[in-house]
Amino acid sequence: MRRYVAAIAVVSSLLAGCAISFSGQEGESPPRFSIDPPPVNRALADLTKSAKGKVLLHHVDEQGRTDRWTTKLKMRASFRLEVDCVGASGTIIVRVGKTQLPHQCSIEPGGVRVSMIPDDAAVRSVKVEAPEGAKWAILIWQLPQS
Q1: What is d(CA 145, CA 90) in angstroms, rounded to the nearest whole number?
Q2: In which region does residue 83 sit, left (phi positive, over 0), alpha (psi from -120 to 50) or beta (all else)?
Q3: Which among 26, 33, 64, 65 is most buried, taking Cβ atoms within 10 Å?
Q4: Sheet containing 135-142, strands listed edge to edge, beginning at the edge strand earlier in sequence
Q5: What is the pLDDT along the chain (146 residues), one digit of tens a residue?
Q6: Three-class DSSP category at 1
């Protein structure tokens, strides 16, 4: 029993030594660490400038009112997706069918080429999940047939 009490005393003293105190003025909060960049309040990029094929979908929410949006689109399996998101921290997620394409908000616009097999045209679901209050735009364009 004495060993048990001694072990508890040792562990308690070790835990007390691990306490962290922040010095500073009263009411000052401890430093916060964030992975997301701070929100950027620039205008949304004109994504249509990068399209070099047939534009299939161009949707813009300049007011930041929609954080979930869905549509259906007839498209081939090879396409290019451009996305921009400003005014919020976090990640905008675009889902085309079962493919999930995340993009970090408040950084520069991004694009990705997507090729799924098979390459035949089909109706695909396009879903967007954006951080609350984010202004966002997506553009899906069909690559020229080779």
Answers
A1: 35
A2: beta
A3: 64
A4: 54-61, 135-142, 78-86, 110-115
A5: 556 455 555 444 444 443 333 333 444 444 444 466 788 888 999 999 988 889 999 999 999 999 999 999 998 888 899 999 999 989 999 999 888 999 999 888 888 888 766 667 889 999 999 999 999 999 999 877 75
A6: coil
